[in-house]
Amino acid sequence: MTKITRYKKITIQLINNLLFSYSMLLFMRNKWVGLVLFLITLLNPNLAFSGVISWMTTLLFARAIGIRQQNLVHSIYTYNSLIVGFSIGFLFKISVLSVLLTVGTSVLTVMLSYALYSYLTLQMRLPVLNIPFFLVSTIIYLASVRYSSLFVDSFYAFEGLNIQQLPMFLQGLFKTTGNLLFMPYDLPGILILIALLCNSLISCSLLIVSYYTGVCCLALLKGSFTHAFYNLSAFNFILIGIALGGIFLIPSRRSYFLSITGVFVSVFILDAASVVWSMFRIPVFTLPFNVVVLLFIYVLRQIGYPYMNDYVQDVPEKSLTFYLNYSLRFDRITPQPYLPFLGIWTVYQSFDDQWTHQGNWKYAYDFVITDDQGNTFCKHGDQLSDYYCYGKPILSPVEGTIVDVFADLKDCPIGEVDKNHNWGNYIIIYAIFGYYIELSHFQEKSIKVKMGDKVKPGTVLGNCGNSGYSPQPHIHMQVQYWPNIGSVTSPFYFSNCIDQNKSICKYDVLTKGTQIEPLTFSRKRNQILNFILDDTFSFNFCMNNDYSEPIQMTVRMDIDGSYFFQIDNTHDRLYFGIEQHQFICYRLTGKKYSPLSYIFASIPILPITIQRNIKWTSILPGNILGPVRHMQTLIQSFDHRFNQIKGEYALTDDNKCVSGKIQFNRQEIQTQLIFHKLKG
């Protein structure tokens, strides 16, 4: 790499870093939004100069003490230092002394940011927000009493940036929005709103609703809308609304309610803080925002709120799409053991069924084997040996440890039950995933494991019997979170099982009478689909009988260890993996209409099996078949299943390709993916 190329690359990185730091003022990561905000600050050269000096100092000092640019705290300290620079530029004239002051406060901001990150984020899983800015700016404004030679009496008033004759309710909104950049004027506020509207309809809507909610509460309490609309500290309402409504919580009806609640609570904190801070003639800055948001996030995490946004994306729309991609396609919480047998069995009793599966024990299944006429026995059915499932091997449905075994009861003759030992001979397994599996009614003296034994899926545990309260031979299975026999049951699904129609029963509650069997795992296909790092592939796609040119892609690995396909010389990535005997396409990043989207749409999930004509359904992310409109995402935030894209897939009879049918925007899209013999 030549020196010119190297310097060019460094310059581009620095410019992008600066613009990303600006965009984070609106909780976004978008260099074009950052560019707009940077240009807005140029309307006040004093402000822009101080901000850039603060940003440059932060980068140099961070590099000097060894903070890597890739460090997670990087965006935190550049963002906070930038606002500190704005606060100094708003207060002091440009001079040698003000530059030295900016440099010193930037260093202090970096140290505070790193210290708070180490405690709040790493130990308490809380964001740093702009606490460093609040602390440093408060210190500087208090100290400014003694810096009269630097103080700017006029504060560089730019009345030309105001628009006369605007209604009071619009002036208040625009000035407060502009105050996010320390520019409380109409024109900056309008430009910020336009930039926000073009990139995130959710954030823009939250800004407007949160502002007017807070101002109305303030006006009702104070008895004056005039004072409320011209209270420039109301930008705290905006920050709280966006942070709780779309950044740290997944956009939803709940998050919107919580954001409005947070704004309402912040009104009291704002007024209380103003009373104290006014004694020192300084503003409250972002104290209400930091207190309310941290308090809400801490409490919501403690109670296990299900819509925490642990993977914050560039804008709320992308966070929602990312969340829906995983929440609707994958259930990472509900236990998903394998079936405890081989061959075709029938559901004899399901969840919350008419006999014993009631109350605390309603989440359980009973299984039997039936013939073509639906009978569970041959001959007269008066002998245990007449029943098809009697004596059949029962397998471990999970990997785990045997924690309890009871194996001494005799099988009950047909027509009799043991009311004193309801569960009969049983085994309880502690799964490696943190729950317990109980299997009951084993055949007398057939159990082959003992307490403490380690088992894996498919390990033979014993034989199906008729011990305990059992009117006929069957196997009982339930999931629980306590090791005691008869504990309260919990919902669960079965992994990799198919019904009589050869449809995969993923996330389905099996109904009584359903015939099911486990999928037969294909080691050969699994080996083919275990793509190796730096493997290269060439593929093409056909749309409406129009074939594309060959496209080259390579297997890469991300910093978190996840694998992805990347089209050569592009940023298009398709993340994939194998879990529970399925090849899964997780997510797609890059440009719109990437060729990788055709692979995703064709096999979002692929069962790795030797069985043929297997059918399954899968939810597809909203961005797979093209860009998602902002209005559509806004509506989807109120109803997460709105405009859901569902695909139906099937392995062909020769098991060499997958055909699919996708319902999208009232259209039916047909797909077909052909496997390569060696490359998958």
From TrEMBL:
Membrane topology: Multi-pass membrane protein
A Gene Ontology term for the protein's cellular component: plasma membrane
Membrane-crossing segments per the record: 99-120, 126-143, 190-221, 228-250, 256-277, 284-300
Gene3D superfamilies per the UniProt record, alphabetical: Ammonium transporter AmtB like domains (1.10.3430.10), Glucose Permease (Domain IIA) (2.70.70.10)
GO molecular function list: urea transmembrane transporter activity
Protein name: UreA transporter
Stated family: Belongs to the urea transporter family.
Keyword check for Membrane: yes
Organism: Candidatus Magnetoglobus multicellularis str. Araruama
Keywords for this protein: Cell membrane, Membrane, Transmembrane, Transmembrane helix
Domain of life of the organism encoding this protein: Bacteria
Localization per record: Cell membrane
Keyword Transmembrane: yes
Domain M23ase beta-sheet core: 390-480
CDD domains for the chain: M23_peptidase (cd12797)
